Fold this sequence. Notes:
Strand content: 35-45%
InterPro entries: CD80_C2-set (IPR013162), Ig-like_dom (IPR007110), Ig-like_dom_sf (IPR036179), Ig-like_fold (IPR013783), Ig_sub (IPR003599), Ig_V-set (IPR013106), SIGLEC (IPR051036)
CATH topology of the largest domain: Immunoglobulin-like
Shape: elongated
Membrane topology: Single-pass membrane protein
GO biological process, one term: cell adhesion
Radius of gyration: 62 Å
GO cellular component, one term: plasma membrane
Largest sheet: 6 strands, mixed
Subcellular location: Membrane
Mean pLDDT: 78
Low-confidence stretches: 1-20, 431-441, 447-494
CATH architecture of the largest domain: Sandwich
Amino acid sequence: MVFWSCLFFLWLKASPANAGEWSAKMPESVVGLSGSCVLIPCTFSYPENEKTYTEFTGIWYKEYSAVVYNKDTSKIAGSFKGRTSLIGDLRQNDCSLKINSLSSSDAGSFMFRTEMKYFKYSYGEKVSIIGKETPENPNVSVEEEVTSGKPVTATCAVSHSCPSDLPKVTWSHHGKQSSPSQPQNHGQWKLTSYNLTFTPSREDHNKRLSCTAEFKGKTVTGYKTLKVKYPPYNVNVVAKSSVKENDFVELTCSSNSNPPANSYQWFSSNGKMLAESPTYKLKRVSEAISCTAINTEGEKSSGPQKLNILYPPEIKSESSCQSKILTVCVCIVDSNPPSEVKWFGPDSSKAFSSTSSKQNEFTLQGWLGFPETVQCFANNSLGSSNITLEAPQNGIIIYIAVGSAVVVVLACILVYVVRRRCGKRAAQQPVMKNEQTQKTTQNKSDLENKEVKGSNEDIYTNSSKGRVYDNWGCGATPFSSDRALEDEAVYANM
């Protein structure tokens, strides 16, 4: 075994006498990304001896043993079959080698050998292949400061070991992407650039612009933090949450901008400029005010803003009472915070609550009697106010009330008269009793006699039995049964 190894080494080193003119140039090592391909740049020279060679055979070996590349593929070691190719032109002295699907087992030293007519030579220069598991992060470049609303172009430079197997590149921002540039030398690796043209906005300020390169099974990301210049926006007048009317208050003009606002202006509600400063001291807070923030990119106004002013109740003169079927009073109160409203009659002894309220209008509706005035009283934490409203009388209601009183009086008189007449009649009942008893007895006797003698022809005679059609006089006494007589006797003795 030792013998064959020595023989193989001597065969590799076989060369003519002027072997000193044989040389090869290649890097001492190359780094390739696992799973991708790797290129080994290589050039060689040989003694021409005034001869031109057109037929060459290039062979690559790994550590004097395994054949990595040969145009006769049957001689290539199994672990390299289908993965290697000679990309250089040997007639141009280019012996560059490409290895695909690089793996960790490919690490080691590689050498080149050339075979020509009459000459065979193995070059002593070696190159080591180093497999790298993780690619380098992309390098993102863009202007240091960009302006909101103006297009800008960013570049993502991706380093790779295989130009024929470029990674997939994506951006974090929407925009127009250009085709990748031609690979440029970047040490042993190649550098390919990808461009993105986009329009930044103020929302992009201090956000990352990312570029992601996806290799086979591996993903890396590079980014650049954007610095976006934009004019002021969200301008507001800032003060205490609430202030009392006519109090002294200091206001601040706030805004969002890049660069920060460098000047401010204050304006009254009629557009008059009041001051130029970040803050403003307002002496009468009842008026509306606005501020404008300005920077190098533009300006923006807050618009008129009213403060939350606290003030005691003020009852408007439009408050009034009306008489319909019921009395309806409306009290209009302006206050902050809102007021509690109560109603009183002329003597303030009886209070009424509002029957309804809408915004600053409070309504009292109902039967209040006949007051000439009604008082509206409003109160909040800052003070109180009241107003006396006239309550006009409704004539229809008065007429109804007077008529009702007259009817009640007449009814009372009628009851009195009836009771007196009943009393007099009760006093006359004993005298009438004996007369009625005699008449009743006589009538009964006659009735019995006529019943015996009577016939069908007697139906319409003026007898006691046919008294239905008899004509009664003022002095006559109607027919009554014994029970009726007994009843009359009872009433007579009362």
